[in-house]
Amino acid sequence: MSIKRYCRSCLLVVIAMVSTYSFVNAQDQVEFSSTLNPVGSGARATGMGGAFIAVADDATAASWNPAGLIKLEKPEVSAVYSLFRRKQGYSSDAHPEIATENKMESDSLNYASVAVPFTAFNRNMLVSLNYQRLYEMNKMVDFEFIPQGSSVTQYIEFDQEGQLYAISPALAVQVTPEFYIGATLNLWKDWAGRNGWVMKQKTVAGNSFQTTAIDFRDEVDFEGVNGHLGFLWTINGNFTVGGVYKTAFDADLRHKFTETVTLDVPSLGIHEESPDSDSFDTSMEMPASYGVGLAYRHSDVWTVAFDIYRTDWSEFVLTDRDGNETNPVTREPISKGSLKDTTQIRLGTEYLHIRGTYVFPLRFGLFYDPEPAMGSVDDFYGISIGGGLVHGRIAIDWSYVYRTGNNTTGDIPSVKGSSADIYQHAAMVSSIFYFE
Q: What is the rounded distance in angstroms from the CA atom of residue 111 to the CA atom of residue 186?
């Protein structure tokens, strides 16, 4: 092979690699796999479609509406385990080569708590300590990509693992027999394993003469503090109104970044690796969210609930180490526009089938759960079912949630204008032990 031909080959590959790498800068990469909207946790609530703001009568109320904690009459410990699965199919008119289907799975402790009721100042009160896993960060994407103006095919493998969780002390107070208030303090820090994510990407491009690969790894630690404020008001024996406000906060992101560029030219016996590493800090403004709920208790065994919940995603901003501001979902500069705010609508019901000393809850829910995007939100819809068993000092609940969105904004980092069809399945099992 002539030197001129070899240099031309190298130039084509380098141009192709740089065109992709400019979109996949580690500083502006944030990939969520679970719903972005921060609502709450637990098998009982999710079995009702998440319509729980005005119900909130178990330990997960610290996540949904901390005022509801006052309904706990005995000390208790609880834990929730979850299984999450997501399938996504990508497409693009401009880049048909990216058409691919990817799957991911994760299972983890979703929630855990210790709650103790007490009396002080002639008021019923309750304190609890909670672990909340609120965002799944696992994601895997493998696809081919041909940059515009290039004939060189790239093979891209993207893998991310992680979670965002909070350790959360909470307090609830019964102000009057019909009115309760509560607050939760969320401490986002590496106290129970990494609070953050590890992102890895490998991009390979080449031809019959040589291959160039870029491997990078970004380990991100997430820290911040915010709170939940809530109220519950029983209007009469049948209707309850609830409200919750979750404060915005600035999260600190600490990056540990490594990169290796590898060049292979088999015909010339060339194998060169150029490693590099860096550590830097960025920040992310997490948005405020708030909602109201209405619960109708038709009888001691049947409850219907309805929630409306909003998140100010237009305030969701990522600031890199050079002070540049982008929205973390599309990675576009804030100067080009912010994300659209989202409004969720959730409807759920619970029926208690009582047999002697055994109670068998049955639950069902429907919800509209959009995700933020540019121009207009991405529509997601879902359905849920749930059940359980309560006997003596033990309660066990389970739920299954199906959530889907078609033709949503594609989140392949290198391809603008792509779309995705997404299908999510989540199952939860919770257990509660009541002390005398």
A: 13
CB within 8 Å of 138: residues ≥ 6 apart: 33, 84, 104, 105, 106, 160, 161, 162
pLDDT band at 29 (very low <50, low <70, confident <90, very high): low
The length of the chain in residues reads 436
What's the predicted TM-score (pTM) here? Answer: 0.89
Q: Which DSSP state fits 37? A: S
Between CA 167 and CA 190 the distance in angstroms is 10
Which tokens in the block code for residue 366?
């429907």
Residues contacting residue 205 through CB under 8 Å, at least 6 positions apart: 13, 16, 17, 152, 153, 154, 155, 211, 212, 213
Residue 108, both tokens: 């983890």
Query: What is the Cα–Cα distance from 181 to 96, expressed in whole angstroms?
Result: 54
Question: Which residues fall within 8 angstroms of residue 23, CB to CB, at 6 or more apart?
Answer: 331, 413, 414, 416
Give the whole-angstrom CA distance, residue 399 versus residue 381: 17
- Do residues 242 and 56 lie in contact, with contact meaning Cβ atoms separated by under 8 Å? yes
Q: What is the pLDDT of residue 248?
A: 96
H/E element, 241: strand 239-246
Question: How far apart, in Å, do the first and last CA atoms of the chain sit?
Answer: 83
Structure-model confidence comparison of residues 409 and 294, the more confident one: 294
Residue 312: phi and psi, rounded to 5, are: -85, 70
More confident residue, 134 or 172: 172
Query: How far is it, in rounded angstroms, from Cα 350 to Cα 47?
Result: 9
* 39: pLDDT strictly greater than 70: no
Read off the tokens for 84: 């999450």
Task: Classify residue 407 as left (phi > 0), alpha (psi -120 to 50) or beta.
Answer: left
Q: Return d(Cα 90, Cα 94) in angstroms, integer.
A: 12
Compare 40 and 259 and report the one with higher pLDDT.
259
Own/partner contacts of 272-279, CB < 8 Å, gap of 24 or more, are: 279/254, 279/255
pLDDT at 147: 76
Q: How far is CA 285 from CA 185, 205, 345, 351, 383, in A?
A: 17, 36, 25, 40, 31
Average pLDDT over residues 45-73: 95
Contact 238, 296 (CB under 8 A): yes
Residues 313-360 have pLDDT tens digits of 999 999 998 899 988 877 788 888 888 999 999 999 999 999 999 999
